[in-house]
Amino acid sequence: MYSPTLLLGQLAVIAGATAAAQPSPVTIRAGGPDVSIAIDNEIRYQAIDGFGFCEAFQRAHALINLPAPYRDEVIDLLFNPDTGAGFSILRIGLGSSPNSTLDHMNSPQPSAHSPFVWDHNDSGQLWVARQALRYGVRTFYADAWSAPGYMKTNGRDDQGGWLCGVRGEGVASTINGTTSACGGASWVEAYAEYLVRYVQSYLSEGIPIKFVGFLNEPNAIKGYATMQSDGYQAADEAFALSLALRASNLSVGISCCEGQGWSYARQLLSEMQDAGAEDTLSLITAHAYKGAPAAPDSPLNTTLPVWITENSPIMQRLGMSQTWYNNGSENEGLYWAVTIHNALTAGNVSAYIYWIGSEPYQVGGNFYVTDPPYQIGGNFWATSHFSRFIRPGATRIGTTTASTASKNDSSSVMVSAYENKDGSVVVQVINNCDQSVTAAVTAPNWVHTPTAWEACEVDTRMTDNTHNLTLADAIYLPADGNLDTVFPPRSLTTLFVKCSGEN
């Protein structure tokens, strides 16, 4: 039986462990500011599409095989917007492997001469999608790691290889001195039809796929499903997929290209633009694993929304950790809070998706199958601060942070703010100092309609080494609309401001 680690790698399920009990509430309110924080909703940045996770490569079975009531508890932690993380995006891996050996995602059409047969399971991901739909999730993003092997130059879905027929990788029996498995055929259009059939299969189950992608880390050559491509070759498939979706009357956006890091995503985007294919896309996607830089450092040159569709400490072979902060390791919660903050503020990303939401307990790439219940990773709490309160359709708004006392460095206080569609405002404050910081928070424009400041309630949540998304005492804005708040050492605090008259 699988027993999952809960999100972010990292609901982890370990014998004798339980979800951390909620500590007693902590009040974080005081005077004498060290840092001033100004919020301005007249300065508008990117729209936010949401936050999410993936359960590809049969990781979904870790959830499915959990006995009740643990399974229900974990699903609630992942999707409930009131008591859990409220994740609003589910990334789905589209299978390409000839079978389900190990953790492979089997293809509905495993050979060139076999029919497309939908198994109403999709490596367990359909079950997860149904749970997400039940909680109100409406953004389902399906992405293929590779085309099936018979469509590729190397004749297999792993170990790289190119899609037969894309530019530079023709259909001849020998390509660049290497024997090709293409057999004289181009599979560009057939791969597009294959992806359309996948989208239609999910739609037949009541799951509307919003975006579909056809590549994943196209510079990687691995022992799992991988397919190589540059941006020009990706353009060939994007044109074909766009035509196939339109011919099938499917209102599904195309995404590209899941580069391993930000710098590679920038290169792929530039090549697609040069090939004239950007207009076929609805979404630009990137990972944050490798490159210079690997993580977002500045916005990409596009008007399309940009998502980080995969990241985790897997490249460092770090296992799940319940630690919020110890030494700044990549599997600690505070590290992920900073990582998400930087992507939103430096890269202007519109969504952030963690690699796996729940899986069997993992250390150094090895799975340890144990009995329930489950453990919760520190990075789950970090991501939950963003996903629960910043809802789809929100807009990032302006913030300014300045130090007012020499003992604190304002650069260690990281602030971002967001306005939801209902007018509520979310302020995320990371105190990356070893000491508490008192901040004066001012927001002269954070409500659009005239109202008394006293009618605005601040729901304050905080996570540090002893608290997990803990609710502090209710705070009502003073008459001048300014708020003095203490942010504990090495903490993430969410100020959720909702005023009378807002829905």
TrEMBL record:
GO BP of this protein: glucosylceramide catabolic process
GO cellular component term of the entry, any: membrane
Pfam family, one: Glyco_hydro_30C
Domain Glycosyl hydrolase family 59 catalytic intervals: 50-356
GO MF entries: glucosylceramidase activity
Matches recorded under InterPro entries: GH, GH30_C, GH59_cat, Glyco_hydro_30, Glyco_hydro_b
Domain of life: Eukaryota
Glycosyl hydrolase family 30 beta sandwich domain span: 393-494
Signal peptide annotation: 1-20
Keyword annotations of the record: Hydrolase, Signal
Family from the record: Belongs to the glycosyl hydrolase 30 family.
Name used for this protein in its record: Glycoside hydrolase family 30 protein
Organism of this sequence: Diplogelasinospora grovesii
